[in-house]
Amino acid sequence: MDFASRITRLPRPYQPDHAEEARARFGDLVGALEDLIGGAAGCSPYLRHLMQAEAEWLPAALDAPEKALEALMADLRAVDGDPAVALRQAKRRAALLIGLADLAGVWPLETVTQALTDLADLACGLALRDALGHELRRGKLPGMGEEDLPDACGMSVLAMGKMGAGELNYSSDIDLICLYDETRFDREANHEARAAFVRATRRMAAILSENTAEGYVFRTDLRLRPDPGVTPVCMSMAAAESYYESLGRTWERAAYIKARPAAGDLAAGQRFLDALSPFVWRRHLDFAAIEDAHNMRLRIRAHKGLGADLGGPLDLMGHNMKLGRGGIREIEFFTQTRQLIAGGRDASLRMRGTLDGLRGLAAKDWIPKDVASDLAAHYRFHREVEHRLQMLRDQQTHDLPETEAGMDRLAAFMGRETHDLKDELLSRLMAVDRVIERFFKPEDTPEAADEQGAWLDAKVIARWPTYPALRSDRAGQIFRRLRPDILRRLSRTSHPEEALLAFDGFLAGLPAGVQVFSLFEANPQLVELLVDIVGTAPELARYLSRNAAVLDAVIAGDFFAPWSGLAALRADLAARLAQEADYEARLVAARHWRREWHFRIGVHHLRGLVDAATSARHYADLAEAVLAELWPEVVREFSVKHGAPPGRGACVLAMGSLGVRALNATSDLDLIVIYDAAGAEGSDGPRPLAPGAYYARLTKAMISALTAQMAGGRLYEVDMRLRPSGNQGPVATSLAAFEDYQQSRAWGWEHLALTRARSIAGASELGADIEAFRTRLIADLGAREGAAHRMAEAVSEMRARIRAAKAPEGPLDAKLGPGRLQDVQLIAQAATLVAGRARQGTAAGLSAGTALGWWSEDEARTLSRTASLCRDVRMAARLLGTEALDAEALGAGARAFVLRESGCADIPSLIDALATASEAAAAIIDSALGRAGAPQEGRA
User: Ranges for the Glutamate-ammonia ligase adenylyltransferase repeated domain (predicted)?
Assistant: First the structure.
């Protein structure tokens, strides 16, 4: 469609005589085009001047504005030699065409700002090429020639601010940072090269910003570079990176959200930005950035004389649409601060544009969708007003008129009535102000209900300032704002004295406080969660204090959503590991990732979102995901020195609780590694190894990857005593040796353990072969004559050894003792083996025992109910601590949690229920062992 058919709005001429003059000049333009020309010239002296200068060019440009702009850019790219004159003519024509398209609504805001940005990019490139060519011709860039000019001899121009985001306003300065790649020069030549790049930068800036009779191109600002008061206008990338790593501030991080290479060596510029990414995007949620951004707002207002008072009525006359209350910068700060908070964890939030940022934040639920939509609409309106203010006289201004006449002119330029425009301006500015103030300055927290209550231990509170987390002034200030709300919430728990002590334990364990307290201040729901935890599970609270970064997960995603499943976990971890550059970083990343998911499972269990059985499966899914994704990383790292795994590779078998998908919060991992060299004599790396040595050392590398104490702690403790020959055998076993051992030398308890084995990582084909062997072996063992008698003897011997090795830790020990969890699991494994079934798990074993006639269906249900009760109590105990439950030491919250999980009314009832259920189960087990041919056992 042509320009005229796309017009959606028109300015009204404020000065009719100027409008008539313009209409007469463009007599061939009729209808809406004539009204547009008249309205623009009748309001804007600047556009009127451009119309006079480009009267011959404009009519044809309005026939096809996109093609006209493309032709302008193409003509510029073809310029050979000094580009100054061509650039100024192109700027005049582009400013006129873009201005009219904006006024008429032919182009939306994004098209307008991108067109201005594209012109700025091209102008910078042409000016830089001319400036560097001048230095090359003088021989001032050592080692460089004309052939190096296409990539600017290693110099890169970074576009910052609105230019970086493709959001240039109509009469915008362009903010540039100029850098050069010092690795392109010998060390002794670096000083001379820097001097040449400094001269080239100044020449480039002069070409762009010098105001001649032909006008200017873009006013250029180079002050966003590191420490501009003392550094040259072009500096080495290494020096800039060093500055940001050691001295970079929050506002500089925010500035780099929009940064991009715009001219010169684009590849080098992108490498610099990639290297700077850890400075801009922190790995953990960075809520301390909120206070930094708020303080920055206040400093800007004070510096610009806009006042620091954020309350009171808003006066439109002379109001700054960019920096004032409710203005453009407020929306940008809001968006960029949220991006800084979350962008380190979620790379999809690292978009440069403000509107894109608002959409992305809303899509990830960082801000409500209606807030994002409203702010986007306000931003568009604010930018249109800003453009009209600047189009009037080509001034870099953001101030609304200070007189009624000036406001009338602006309203006419926007095709509005003055009173309507004022009403909308005030309404939108105040709406933005309300949103921003709630974000940057949350409502004051009311005082605690009873700061002097009997439950408050003054000695406990008095020691808080001595804790590491509260030693900095900034942390102390934030905590003082939080304290009333925290104490009020603690006072509402069922036993506030216990909750206070548990919170004290959390606070004492925090190594630092600014980030955590900022996180709490910005997200009050986390305080509620913390109080819930300290009031129920003090051990989990202490874990939280050592691993406070897991709170990121609570607000960074679907923390309370249903479980995503093993496949999604593996994909998530794989994506997380792929972001890291080296092996050690991936091990650390895996620890942080696992820690967050582990905490999530615990919170879901604590809050009753999942039951004990589901929680056990989730812990197992988590461990399996870690092993499945970490094993190839270990293999890849090991292969660098020793070559790829010889033969068919190796497979990691999960045994015990992991094998049957039933871990608890503190479980270690029972593992076996089996390999098949398939006739290979060794590996083929720089340091080759024989298969046995290769896989043994590879297994030890895997154990180290899991158990090494690194940032984020350990992943898991590992127990490999279930491998053939236990601790006396090699840590990795060949497939042939494993099969031979299981068929000819394994003990009965080792065959029992095999009923819970499954492959979870490594070579999948080998894993399938091991599973096929396991299935055949169990079927064969069950079919052998006297299998039931032998298994009964093995179980009886194991029960006796367990009783001798460790006594139950009290009446609430759900694992140890006749008829308790371990006892039921043992007899279920024996039934599985004797029945020749390969299915894993206690439920499958109990079903097999019924088929064997070891117990009736009613007795199987009794065993199942006993196992479930013991499991539920044990899962709760492990979430609350590392020991069996102590009825005397349980706090009120923990007691309520355990009773909820067990379905009992009180602790004595739970003790009775465990005793009754285990006694019945022990009788059934004793009877089953007797039927299987073993001597009858007592219940000592």
Answer: 44-274, 528-771
Write out pLDDT tens, residues 555-605. 666 777 889 899 999 999 999 899 888 999 999 999 989 988 998 898 888
Contacts of 267 (CB under 8 A, 6+ apart): 151, 261
* Local structure of residue 548 (DSSP, 8 states): G
| Residue 860 · residue 805 · CB < 8 Å | no
- Residue keyed to tokens 């896989």: 695
Q: Which CATH number fits domain 288-399: 3.30.1490.20, 1.20.120.330, 3.40.980.10, 3.40.50.10470?
A: 1.20.120.330
CA distance 392 to 400: 12
**DSSP codes, 463-478:** TGGGSGGG-SHHHHHH
What is the pTM for the complete model shown? 0.71
Among residues 653, 651, 699, which one has the least CA distance to residue 676?
651
Instruction: Give the number of residues written for the chain.
Output: 940
| CA distance linking residue 637 with residue 42, whole number of Å | 72
**Beta strand pairing status for 260-264 and 234-236?**
unpaired
In this structure, the number of other CB atoms found within 10 A of the CB of residue 809 comes to: 16
If you ran DSSP here, which 8-state letter would residue 885 be given?
-
Q: Are 716 and 747 in contact (CB under 8 A)?
A: no
Token output for 215: 């006008």
360 has which bridge partners? none
Cα–Cα distances in angstroms (integers) from residue 594 to residues 538, 624, 715, 827, in the given order = 21, 11, 7, 33
Q: What one-character DSSP code corresponds to residue 212?
A: B
Q: Is 784-931 the same fold as 288-399?
A: yes
CATH code for the structural domain at 784-931: 1.20.120.330
Phi, then psi, of 125 in degrees rounded to 5: -65, -45
pLDDT at 291: 61
Residue 476: its pLDDT value, please? Answer: 85
Helix (H, G, I), strand (E, B) or coil at 669: strand
CATH match of 142-280 with 3.30.460.10:
yes
Q: How far apart are CA 2 and CA 10, in angstroms?
A: 16
Cα dist. 97→23, 102, 104, 614, 798 in Å? 17, 9, 11, 64, 89
Q: For Cα atoms 772, 773, 774, give the angle at the middle one, nearest 5 degrees.
A: 90
Q: Helix-strand-coil percent breakdown of the chain, rounded to 5?
A: 65, 5, 30
Q: Are 293 and 332 in contact (CB under 8 A)?
A: no
Write down the residue that tokens 């001429």 correspond to. 13
What is the spatial distance between Cα 863 and Cα 854, in angstroms, rounded to a whole number? Answer: 12
CB 705 within 8 A of CB 718: no
The number of beta carbons lying within 10 Å of the beta carbon of residue 250 is: 18
- State how far the Cα of 682 lies from the Cα of 664, in Å rounded to an integer: 39
For 531-557, the pLDDT digits (tens) are: 777 777 777 777 777 776 676 666 666
Domain boundaries, the chain: 1-107, 142-280, 288-399, 784-931
